[in-house]
Design a protein that fits this description.
Helix content: 25-40%
Number of domains: 2
CATH architecture of the largest domain: 4-Layer Sandwich
Largest sheet: 8 strands, antiparallel
Radius of gyration: 24 Å
Mean pLDDT: 89
Length: 511
């Protein structure tokens, strides 16, 4: 635990309820970013006789930022829109200018952008722009994409976007909104997930008001759970390197194969983020072509093969296996079931209860902030734990602070012994592709020479991690239809796209 979720993006075209659907989509993606939220829509201003893009964004959760009905009935009008949930590091989070979506107006009209990921050549691009006298409104690398689009000499807006994206590297799942198009983009490596969905036509569909035959609405989202929220169906993933262009006329036909699709050439192969399966994505989402729940259960089974529950002597109580909620829940089910099938005595229980309503203001001055944050987030079921060997399954250990406090809580609740089983390998390297990990020196795995020493530091009776080979085997076993590559740089230090590791974090926030 300790890695932070990154951004969630959503876009839709072809419905007069674009803002409301975007709102619900962002609500489903709240786990990917809790710092701020924003929505921009596209409509036509009859009085000014031109297309406009109203926008509303602020710090806070989706439910807090969009808490007034008039935002949807009077302001965020139009048949298309995009939204963004943001997570950032603490310093960058204080700047309101960094809240997305970003909106600009130039000679080609209005343009809005939402970005999930991080550009690995951001410093180089920023230096180049600065030498040209370009002024920046934010400290976000996402703004660089807008500058590249604005400076493109190509005529069509779509061609400007394509031109810009051939000049950036790293992780970028994007949704862009023009006056006429919804554009979905995934970087050639395919680091972050992005999917296309279809929403059945509504009786008052925007196609009528735009003079076209009534048809379905089309949406894109970081995870398919956003489609479930609005009743849309998953169609397919946006492919690595694909620029998918959705316009109103083509959208009304109802055939996804009719959309314009372009390919950004890649130089480093495909490397989808395996940590999306381990931790970030919701278990009810389909990413990279497979359900997260299915993959996590297989990861748990593989962990049971490599590090089953400890043996207990005759007369001792049977060990219980408990997850650290919520991301480890389904992997723990796979782990416990596999251990039982292998003949190990154990059974699955819910021994930790998570409080989902702890906000940033929970900590009061003068308290031990780290410990109180853990106690405010988790509580133990004491009667279940007393006098039993407890096997705790978690998705990862990053700094180790939370794990240490959980061990103390479990022992205070009377656990006879505490054993940790981790469904990923030790985190040894920071991420530069859109996830917020601590620096290399802060990572627990880099502070000790062995896993046994790490276990002693945490105060557990035993500690075991899933191997890198086991993780990759489990993912490929569960997701056989996707034979593309995965990025596991946070576990191996093998970065698929070159990064300026010593400077990127200093100058740019993480999107």
């Amino acid at each position: 635990m300790g890695a932070n979720d990154e951004c969630g993006i959503f876009g839709i075209l072809g419905t007069p309820e674009a803002a409301r659907h975007t709102y619900y989509g962002l609500h489903a993606l709240q786990h990917r970013g809790q710092e701020s939220s924003g929505i921009v829509t596209s409509t036509y201003d009859e009085a000014r006789e031109r297309p406009v893009m109203p926008i509303h964004k602020d710090f806070g959760l989706v439910l807090d930022v969009f808490d007034q009905e008039r935002l949807f009935s009077q302001k965020l009008l139009g048949d298309s829109g995009i939204g963004h949930n943001r997570y950032s590091t603490s310093g960058a989070s204080e700047s309101r200018t960094n809240v997305q979506p970003f909106l600009v107006h130039d000679r080609k009209g209005n343009l809005a952008l939402s970005h999930n990921g991080n550009l690995s050549n951001a410093r180089e691009l920023r230096r180049s722009f600065s030498e040209q006298g370009t002024l920046f409104q934010t400290t976000s690398d996402s703004e660089l994409i807008l500058h590249l689009i604005a400076q493109s000499r190509r005529e069509r807006r779509v061609d400007q976007i394509i031109d810009a994206l051939t000049q950036v590297e790293g992780a970028f799942s994007l949704v862009l909104l023009t006056d006429d198009h919804l554009v979905a983009v995934r970087d050639p490596n395919g680091f972050r997930p992005l999917a296309l969905g279809r929403l059945a036509s509504e009786s008052s569909g925007s196609a009528k008001q735009n003079g076209h035959a009534e048809g379905p609405a089309w949406c894109v989202a970081s995870e398919t759970c956003a489609f479930d929220m609005i009743g849309a169906e998953y169609v397919r993933d946006v492919e690595p390197g694909e620029i998918l262009v959705i316009d109103r006329e083509t959208a009304a036909r109802g055939d996804a194969s009719a959309f314009e699709s372009y390919q950004v050439p890649g130089r480093h192969g495909v490397s989808q983020c395996v940590f999306e399966y381990v931790y970030f994505s919701r278990p009810d989402s389909k990413i990279f072509g497979e359900m997260v729940d299915k993959v996590r259960r297989q990861i748990g089974r593989q962990l049971a093969l490599e590090a089953p529950v400890p043996e207990v002597e005759d007369g001792q109580k049977e060990p219980i296996v408990i997850p650290v909620p919520d991301s480890a829940n389904t992997a723990t089910l796979g782990y416990a079931n596999a251990c039982q099938k292998q003949g190990q005595r154990c059974h699955f229980e819910i021994g930790l209860i998570r409080n989902h309503y702890v906000g940033r203001t929970f900590i009061a001055p003068g308290q031990d902030q780290r410990e109180m944050k853990v106690r405010g987030k988790f509580n133990t079921v004491e009667g279940l734990l007393r006098d039993r060997p407890v096997v705790v399954v978690d998705d990862s250990i990053v700094r180790g602070t939370t794990a240490s406090y959980l061990v103390d809580m479990l022992r205070d609740s009377g656990a006879a012994s505490v054993h940790f089983r981790i469904t990923s390998p030790p985190v040894v390297s920071p991420c530069f592709y859109g996830m917020d990990f601590p620096s290399e020196e802060e990572l627990l795995a880099n502070q000790f020479d062995s896993i046994a020493e790490m276990g002693d530091h945490l105060g557990v009776d035993s500690l075991a991690y899933l191997s890198v080979e086991g993780l990759m085997k489990a993912v490929r076993t569960a997701n056989k239809q996707n034979d593309l590559g995965y990025c596991n740089a946070c576990f191996t230090g093998d970065y698929p796209v070159p990064v300026e590791a010593d400077q990127v974090k200093e100058e740019f926030e993480w999107q």
